[in-house]
Amino acid sequence: ENTVEIRDDEVQIEAVAAEIPTSPFKAQTTAVPPVTITTAFPFPTKMDIIKQFTLNSQQKYAFMIVTSHLDGENQIHTGSADNQLLMCVPGCGGTGKSQLIRGITQYFQITKRGKMLRKLAPTSIAVAEIDGLTIHSFLGESRKDSKKKQTRTFRPGDTKLENEWRHVKYLIIDEMSMVGLSLLARLNRIVKTAKHINSDIPFGGVNVIFFGDYLQYSPVLDRPLYHSCTSSEQITERQIDMQCAQKLISQMNCVVELSQQMRTEDLRYLELLNRLRGGQSTIEDYQLLCTRI
């Protein structure tokens, strides 16, 4: 009959075939080489990351949309022909936008797809929060000396540019309130150049997720993304860029608003912040702020 012998240091399996009564021959004993015992470590799941970063229900919803789209799950349909994700995650300060970005970044990294994600922001402070790159640095613009400002030139066939974006499939743009129409149009044009994609496809087919709050700082020397361009008799290159950027914004196919305040639970202070954000501060708000000084 079959026998199995188990030892502490290794596992040995010896299989002995049973004798078949109708056969005049006896089957040979088959010796199986020792099997090495390997301890399997559980792979972190989406729920593990949600717990690790303490994402609330709204953050979790946005997180699942991005990661499920990354995994190609069938239930995520954006409506575009190539299922491109053009997403916006708005929310006032303290609603956990940066924390959500960290959670999404973690999922890309633990699934060995970190090269597929690029994170950009208009300011160095915002970049430090999400461990990304400033948009102007990516564009090759130096702001240290405005008199000797140099702009990197991008042309089709730029090997360096193509290598930078070869593996990138997802782009996160933080602090969207400070990103102007002209700047977004330039970024769109450069990514298309890197990807060699039909000009009708936004961002060369790269999936883009915008984070920010339109009621925060507006762009410098540019028009905000919600600006409506009016037609004029004299069409300039700048106006064409802004109209192209407007078309990009109009093609957004997913919005998840973050409204739950995660930074503080002080009800009076929360109400103060909401009034301040809407430009409806009161004398009581001023007096409350004076108590913090």
UniProtKB/TrEMBL annotation:
Root EC class: isomerase
Could you tell me the EC number(s) of this protein? Answer: 5.6.2.3
Gene3D superfamilies hit by this protein:
P-loop containing nucleotide triphosphate hydrolases
Keyword line: ATP-binding, DNA damage, DNA recombination, DNA repair, Helicase, Hydrolase, Nucleotide-binding
Catalytic reaction list: ATP + H2O = ADP + phosphate + H(+)
Which terms does the UniProt entry file under GO BP?
DNA recombination; DNA repair; telomere maintenance
UniProt GO MF annotations = 5'-3' DNA helicase activity; ATP binding; hydrolase activity
Which domain of life does the UniProt lineage start with?
Eukaryota
Q: Where are the transmembrane segments?
A: none
Q: Extract the InterPro entries matched here.
A: DNA_helicase_pif1-like_DEAD, P-loop_NTPase, PIF1_helicase
Q: Give the family this protein belongs to, as stated in its UniProt record.
A: Belongs to the helicase family.
Q: Which PANTHER family match?
A: ATP-DEPENDENT DNA HELICASE
Q: What is this protein called?
A: ATP-dependent DNA helicase
Native source species: Rotaria magnacalcarata
Phylogenetic classification of the source organism: Eukaryota, Metazoa, Spiralia, Gnathifera, Rotifera
